[in-house]
Automatic annotation (TrEMBL):
Keyword NAD part of the UniProt annotation: no
Top-level taxonomy: Bacteria, Pseudomonadati, Bdellovibrionota, Bacteriovoracia, Bacteriovoracales
Record carries keyword Metal-binding: yes
Protein name as annotated: beta-lactamase
Organism: Peredibacter starrii
Family stated for the protein in its record: Belongs to the metallo-beta-lactamase superfamily. Class-B beta-lactamase family.
Amino acid sequence: MKNIYYLCILISFMSCASKPKWDSTKFDQEFAVKEIAPDTYVVTDKTFFDSNILVAKMKDGTVFIASSPFETVGTRELIGWIKAKLEPKKIVAVNTHFHADGTGGNEAFKEAGIETWASTLTSKLQQENAESARKFEATNFADKPELLKRLNERKMVQADYVFYEKAGKTFTFGEEKVQLIYPGPAHTKDNMVAYFPERKVLYGTCMIRPGDSLGNIADADIRAWPKSVEKIQALDASIIIPGHGPVGGPELLSKTSELAKSAKKK
């Protein structure tokens, strides 16, 4: 019996020793993490436009990701951080809109066996705009060859599962829910928001603006934007996460609505 006992210990030790240790150096260089509520994190991609990614560990041990880093290399680093720090039972990722900060991580998600979701409209727009979007993004990195290479090497990979945007989707993780809501066109035609009713947290994607401008409006519907914001103002959210910039409260919704109304008049 003693021999069997020692053999089990040896096998356990060898298993731990063979498991590669995640090195946080690269992640820390490229990302900033802030816990905004228990088990709820904003991960900011410092390398590509300071984009905010929502990462939440649900009560059943699943980790839920809304949006993604811009490209595959950064997303691999994010996955490494999630596995090392949050030890997920499972990971689910949602493409919140068709731009790269909504879908650019799909190649890495697929490699890691992560379940990915998108609306039918996001999936369609991603496919139609993949190459033109890449060229547009590249203009910002002409003087940064390493980052440009990463953008150019990113493969266009679509989500595993789709849902009709107007119907939205509700995920249930144990007893906790996450609601994906389509408020209407704003930053893009397809922008979805993710709402955590129990945590009163709303991930508003790039349709919510903390600054003094609407940001990139190349694919925006400015006329519809204020009305789309109004639809999510009815939610009982106390923490609002924009697609870029600092986290705030319901005042971010009011501010965004006013920005869009002002832009409509021009």
